[in-house]
Amino acid sequence: MNLGLEAKRVLVTGSTRGIGRSIAAGFVGEGARVAVHGRRQETARSVAREVSQEAGGTPVAALSGDLSQEDGVEQVFQGCLEQLGGIDVLVNNAGAYEVCGWKEADGERWMDSYAVNVVSRVRLIRRVLDSMRRQQWGRIIQIASISAAVAPPVFPDYAAAKAASVNMTVSLMQELAGSGITANTISPGPVETETWKTFAIQIGKGQGWGDDLEEIKEKLLSGWMSNPCGRIGRPQDVADACLFLASQRSAYINGVNLPVTGGLAARAI
After folding, report:
1. Rounded distance, CA 8 to CA 10, Å?
2. pTM beyond 0.90, yes or no
3. CA 3 → CA 15, 41, 204, distances in Å?
4. H or E, element range at 11
């Protein structure tokens, strides 16, 4: 299937590892012009080189900047203008969380989490809208989390921030009515990234299961991470969904929150 992404200019934030890296590599494989982003320029350059080599030498831009700060957002945006000439597809993937409960998550942590996981996205969206409106085409995709709908007692600040991203997409979709721009959200369930592996081992130790990751996964899949697909998600699962939502084939899909969860916590619309 031709997704019509060739030569599209794509910014994937937080794309030096995990889900973001897989998304960036997927776009490169489809012939898009991609900017990899991370907090550190050296890391972004290294990952951009890796992704480029995997795609047979296709050029990949490398950008850095702290998106929780206004000047960091501007730095990344200007880098896209200089290296790509603009942004046709914005994938707001960058985010952060720490495992902590209500007792540990004080007001300052909530503010920091909101700045990283919500405000940074708003700032980037506001910067790309004018050019997308002029060309009457654009894709804005938020990477949220199943925790937006099924909030656990740990990282309540992160779960609330992801819920804000879902809400923001619906509002943005209405703002962009008739513009040719679509706004959608992807909410992954557990995905086996390095960060998730660390989280899973923490859970395993806390439950007295030891630190063997495969054994911990089995126990999680027979418990609260049980899903009809019978496995933990992979970064590629999210990347595939993102590529479709960015494509020409998804023009009639707008304002959705797409769960990529293997059926975990599924419910009728």
Report:
1. 6
2. yes
3. 21, 30, 41
4. strand 9-12
Sheet holding 9-12, edge to edge: 61-64, 33-38, 9-12, 89-92, 138-143, 181-188, 257-260
For the record, the structure tokens of 124 come out as 């980037």
In 46-180, the DSSP E strands lie at 61-64, 89-92, 138-143
From CA 61, how far away is CA 139, in angstroms rounded?
19
Q: What is the residue type of 185?
A: T
Per-residue pLDDT tens digits for 182-195: 999 999 999 999 98
Encoded amino acid at 222, one letter: S
- DSSP, collapsed to helix, strand or coil, labels residue 2 as coil
Q: For residues 7 and 32, is the Cβ–Cβ distance under 8 A?
A: yes
Measured at the CA of 37, the angle between CA 34 and CA 41, to 5 degrees, comes to 120
Tokens standing for 263?
Answer: 């059926």
Residue 158 annotated as catalytic:
yes
Nearest to 183 by CA among 97, 266, 121: 121
Q: Which of 98, 139, 89 is nearest to 117 (CA)?
A: 98
Residues found in the chain: 269
Cβ atoms of 182 and 174 within 8 Å: the answer is no
The yes-or-no verdict on residue 268 having pLDDT over 70 is no
CB-based burial of residue 48 (10 Å sphere; 0-12 exposed, 13-18 middle, 19+ buried)? buried
